[in-house]
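Postdoc handover notes: sequence design on the structure in folder B. Input tokens:
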């Protein structure tokens, strides 16, 4: 079993995911629409707590995006879910 990513690894992966989305307007526009952000405030939003987890949530919400991103990095897609969990913590219904 592979180790769970550290917070730093998870942040790096989420930043790479943001770059992946930003590299193609067809991938970026749905993300911006979902978050309500615009190109002008995207950089500032990236500094906000929870934003990087939202990037990974967006990828996880689309099998095609998730598999393309994971394939580009030769990663098991489960690593992305683990990174998201590291950044955001467990879902509210799973919290102790």
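Designed sequence:
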């Amino acid at each position: 079993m592979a180790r769970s990513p550290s917070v730093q690894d998870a942040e790096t992966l989420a930043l790479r995911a943001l770059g992946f989305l930003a590299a193609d307007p067809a991938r970026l526009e749905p993300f911006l629409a979902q978050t309500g952000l615009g190109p002008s405030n995207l950089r500032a939003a990236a500094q906000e707590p929870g934003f990087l987890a939202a990037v990974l949530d967006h990828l996880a919400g689309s099998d095609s995006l998730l598999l393309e991103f994971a394939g580009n990095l030769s990663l098991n897609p489960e690593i992305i879910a683990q990174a998201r969990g590291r950044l955001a913590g467990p879902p509210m219904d799973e919290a102790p």
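Context for whoever picks this up: Residues 22 and 45 are 14 Å apart (CA to CA). Don't rerun without checking with the PI first.
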